[in-house]
């Protein structure tokens, strides 16, 4: 990208934000485990597709609980302690999972790991809203998402190579980079919780408010449909690929397409996305996600999988920073963590239901029916996003910066 455009993309964001950005990059560079968990369980441990899908779904169950719990901790205890707690405990859980042998023990540890791995996510997202001015949040979330996928692109390739040496190294590498993430947070990222929310003299805050916010709940439900599709990438998609003769290394290279495209396109797209009505961006993103996962039903080859990954990656590029900015605009300052935690439910439910239902469909009806179902969910998500746009616009008019929030929603930053 031209240097002037790049400078305009990164300038004006606070130094602490960039420390958080760096920590996320490090963490994702070692994020081997979840991507290869389904293949590890079937090829290395010898479990059936059904058992592996249930175990991966248990990870999603833990992740589902992590959103609300992590959000409450972020608002009550603070952003920094919540991130540190999640980093240390999840690293320990990763190492424990690598040593687990009994399937019942595996089930418990996998669920615990899902909880701990995502415990700090609401705190990270709330910290961005604390640090960055509202007009810059879509840009900031886009860059954070870019860092995550910059690390993911490298992790996908590295994990394929590491797994060939010894699958246990996946657990060790992920744990070490998670601890390094925690070290960066500990040394460089101060507490960002707004003083009013942190004060013991402040009036009690209503931690259940996100779940009574009808506009917000409808938005979370719509994103949950899309989340179900996305989590096929780490559960049924690799199983479908290996069923069609692809190796673990080939899956790693194909999966790296997602991270590489985001690294190349996300910075270019972020500025443009801020100038388009958010409901339209989200609708197109949902539709492309469904279409991308449907393409392997028509062409289950390396080329077909590559094309499908490319299409749904573009949908992901469109949706991710915009969705986070929507949540930040809907959330009161004292409940940013709780709103981000509640928003994480859409991904937690996707991580829980996606592998379980997707695995059932794949084993009993085959990949074609599974990918057709994903296409249907993508269409439903697109329609709901278009229908919910006007209601969210009315809701934002009641915010403290109502006129400015509506302008951001309409694509006039």
Structure overview:
The chain is mainly alpha-helical. Helix content is 82%, strand content 0%. Helix 2 (15-29) packs parallel to helix 8 (137-165), helix 4 (49-76) crosses helix 7 (121-131) and helix 18 runs antiparallel to helix 19 (402-410). The chain is globular and about 55 Å long.
Number of helices: 19
Shape: globular
Classify the oligomer: single chain
Q: Please give the radius of gyration in angstroms.
A: 20 Å
Mean pLDDT: 86
The strand count comes to 0
**Largest sheet properties:** none
H/E topology pattern: HHHHHHHHHHHHHHHHHHH
- Helix/strand-derived class? mainly alpha
Which range does the strand content fall in?
A: under 5%
In which range does the helix fraction lie?
Answer: over 70%
In the predicted model, the low-confidence regions spanning at least 5 consecutive residues are 197-201
Distance between the termini: 22 Å
């Amino acid at each position: 990208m031209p240097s002037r455009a790049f400078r305009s993309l990164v300038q004006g964001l606070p130094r602490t934000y960039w420390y958080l950005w760096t920590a996320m990059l490090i963490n994702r560079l070692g994020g081997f485990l979840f991507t290869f968990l389904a293949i590890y369980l079937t090829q290395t441990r010898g479990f059936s597709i059904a058992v592996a899908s249930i175990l991966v779904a248990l990870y999603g169950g833990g992740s589902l609980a992590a959103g609300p719990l992590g959000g409450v901790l972020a608002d009550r205890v603070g952003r920094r302690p919540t991130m540190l707690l999640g980093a240390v405990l999840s690293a320990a859980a990763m190492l424990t999972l690598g040593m687990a042998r009994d399937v019942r023990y595996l089930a418990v540890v996998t669920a615990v790991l899902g909880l701990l791995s995502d415990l700090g996510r609401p705190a990270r997202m709330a910290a961005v809203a604390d640090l960055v001015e509202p007009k810059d949040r879509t840009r900031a979330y886009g860059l954070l998402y870019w860092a995550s996928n910059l690390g993911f692109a490298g992790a996908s390739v590295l994990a394929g190579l590491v797994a060939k040496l010894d699958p246990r190294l996946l657990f060790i590498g992920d744990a070490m980079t998670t601890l390094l993430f925690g070290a960066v947070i500990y040394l460089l990222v101060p507490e960002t919780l707004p003083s009013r929310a942190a004060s013991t003299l402040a009036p009690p805050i209503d931690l259940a408010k996100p779940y009574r916010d009808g506009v917000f709940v409808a938005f979370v439900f719509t994103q949950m449909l899309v989340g179900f599709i996305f989590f096929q990438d780490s559960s049924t998609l690799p199983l479908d690929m290996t069923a069609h003769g692809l190796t673990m290394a080939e899956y790693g290279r194909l999966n790296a397409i997602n991270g590489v495209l985001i690294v190349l396109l996300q910075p270019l797209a972020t500025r443009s996305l801020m100038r388009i009505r958010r409901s339209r961006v989200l609708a197109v993103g949902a539709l492309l996600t469904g279409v991308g996962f449907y393409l392997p039903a028509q062409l289950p080859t390396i080329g077909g999988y590559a094309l499908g990954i490319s299409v749904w990656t573009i949908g992901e590029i469109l949706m991710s920073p915009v969705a986070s900015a929507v949540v930040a605009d809907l959330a009161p300052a004292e409940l940013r963590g709780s709103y981000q935690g509640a928003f994480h439910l859409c991904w937690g439910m996707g991580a829980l239901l996606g592998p379980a239902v997707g695995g059932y469909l794949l084993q009993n009806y085959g990949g074609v029916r599974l990918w057709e179902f994903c296409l249907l969910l993508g269409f439903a998500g697109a329609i709901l996003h278009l229908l919910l746009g006007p209601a969210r616009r009315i809701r934002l008019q009641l915010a403290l910066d109502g006129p400015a929030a509506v302008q951001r929603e309409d694509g006039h930053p």
